[in-house]
Each structure stands twice: as structure tokens, then as C-alpha cells.
């Protein structure tokens, strides 16, 4: 299932327009905060699809029955670009366990590259809701590799893929590499074009560099 939140009119589109805007992007603090706020919006929407249980809450004047979300969520993100988006999700799912995956492009002499994983820190995700986030879903290779690393020894109940801007090619790649009927892809905006170097057009550029500065 694919859900594109930006197709509905909401304040989400304001934040997406600002992270795309080349002039506003120069303010790294604002860029990171916008990623974080977008993560909070995704968290609210995803929460509607999770498991709840009725609990009694004692108030000063009596007892109230409230449907409370169950504590069976693992938030995972791809370093380093995913950190602000991850923080936004964590602001709402503040009791969730957390996982982090490091991946990088290994370039070859012919200027081609492949996605390699270099770091993994994760709790047990067996029979839990895995929410895996990355601001950009370009070719889909890094997110698919992150999913493979996270689920090598355990099987989540359902996977929620969260990305702010996605390319159609990347969405199709994820659909081919995730288990059928066990995932939902949440997208802010869907772009049509992907360059030969796997950059989304119009996209927004390199989210990691815009959030944290240029890398070597």
C-alpha cells in the first residue's frame, strides 16, 4: 500500500515547499526543523494504523476509559540524513525502541556505484511494527538494504516506510523487494524523474548535506 500525504491539502505541503526551496535551504537549522515537523505529521497519520487497547485512567474526579497505543514499535532510520525525520517520529512515539542503519555509496572506477551497509544497531523487532524512515526514496537500494539488514534474524508484524520525497522508480523497487501484504509506504511528495546518479528531480538535493553540511 502506498499513501501520498501531499496529495491532500494540509500544512505538510508548506513544510515540503520550504525544504525544496533553494533559498530557504541555506538555513540548516530551519531545514532540520522542517524535517522534524514532517516526521511528526507522519507519526500522527501512522498512529491511526497501529494497535490500541482500552485502559482506565484515574482522574481527580473519577475514571476515564481511553484507547492507548500499544508499546510494540521500533523506529529505524538510515544515517545520517534520516536523523531529523527520525527525531520527529520519536517526538510522538516517545516510548518506541530505536534502530540505526549506516549505508554508503561505493563508487567504482567507471563512475558507477553500489549501495553498501556499514553499521547496524537494532533491538529485536520480532512481531513489532517497524517504522523505517529516510527523507529521500530515490532508487530504493539503500532502504531495501536497510530493511534486509534489520530483518535478517527477526520478522516484524508490519513495516511502515516513511519518506518525504520519493521517485516512482524507487517506489517500484521497494514494492519488488518488500514482502507482499506486510508493508505500507508513506510519502510526502512523489516525483517522476531520477537521474543517472540516482538523484530525484525536482527533488531537493542532498538531504544529508543540507541538514549537516558537505561531506568529503
Characterise the protein shown here.
With 216 residues, this protein is α/β, with parallel strands linked by helices. It has a single domain (2-50, 70-212), classed as Rossmann fold. The protein is built from 6 helices and 12 strands. It has helices at 12-20, 28-47, 83-92, 141-150, 168-177, 207-212; strands at 2-4, 52-59, 62-69, 73-79, 97-107, 113-121, 129-133, 136-137, 158-167, 183-191, 193-194, 200-201. Strands 1, 4, 5, 6, 7, 8, 9 and 10 form an 8-stranded mixed beta sheet that branches. The chain has a two-stranded antiparallel sheet with strand order 2-3. The protein has a two-stranded antiparallel ribbon with strand order 11-12. The radius of gyration is 18 Å and the shape is globular.
Please give a handful of descriptors for the protein shown.
single chain, 216 residues, alpha/beta, two-stranded antiparallel sheet, 30% helix
- Average residue pLDDT: 91
- Percentage of residues in helical conformation: 25-40%
Distance between the termini: 37 Å
The helix count comes to: 6
Task: Name the helix and strand elements from N-terminus to C-terminus, one letter apiece.
Answer: EHHEEEHEEEEHEHEEEH
Number of strands: 12
In the predicted model, the low-confidence regions spanning at least 5 consecutive residues are: none
**CATH class descriptor:** Alpha Beta
Oligomeric form:
single chain
Q: What's the CATH architecture name?
A: 3-Layer(aba) Sandwich
- Overall 3D shape: globular
